[in-house]
């Protein structure tokens, strides 16, 4: 953080007082502004008075659990969501990512690693503004980068900000195969390790919302061994 840059604003949703205070102190030492919310069912109203850049969200919370909250948050919050939980199975992590989380850390987490994850998510957020100022149109599909409005025929398609960023990346390079490595670098600023499913989950959600086939996709195609391809001629019907 440079002297002229405002501190990143973090909303920490954690009911364990001792852990919350430890995280708060460490994040403050790293130049972040932190507020704590201890219940899941009060987070949405808290967003009215505190507008964070990122939300750190525990799963086991009173009032509303973190996974249920994670599913609701994209309607009210466009920034990254980092889930924190002692539940470390692959199934738990996949479910959290499918519900809209951007990353998932297993507690106890090393404070330095947590700061690195936060900075990575915030850096990605800053890099994901569409480079083009023009709307894209393919048959009955139109994509507006300014309002993030998506129209498919007479239907308005409701996407989260992260789904929009992926769609824009694919559509702005329509007809080209984008490798997973390229997508991970562009959107997540990390290398694809061959196992991470974040992008696969987002692709599946995009296909479902855009009327693509999940079994034999023809609009956002999987090119086996290479990556994904946005088919520019598949939007006329």
Automatic annotation (TrEMBL):
InterPro entries per the UniProt record, alphabetical: CheY-like_superfamily, OmpR/PhoB-type_DNA-bd, Sig_transdc_resp-reg_C-effctor, Sig_transdc_resp-reg_receiver, WalR-like, WH-like_DNA-bd_sf
Keyword Repeat: no
SMART domains in UniProt: REC, Trans_reg_C
Entry keyword annotation includes Cytoplasm: yes
UniProt xrefs under CDD domains: trans_reg_C
Alphabetical keyword list: Cytoplasm, DNA-binding, Phosphoprotein, Transcription, Transcription regulation, Two-component regulatory system
Domain OmpR/PhoB-type: 133-232
Any one of the GO CC terms: cytosol
Chain positions found as 4-aspartylphosphate: 58
One Pfam assignment: Trans_reg_C
GO biological process: regulation of DNA-templated transcription
Cell compartments where the protein resides: Cytoplasm
Major subcellular site: cytoplasm
Any GO MF annotation of the entry: transcription cis-regulatory region binding
Protein name: Response regulator
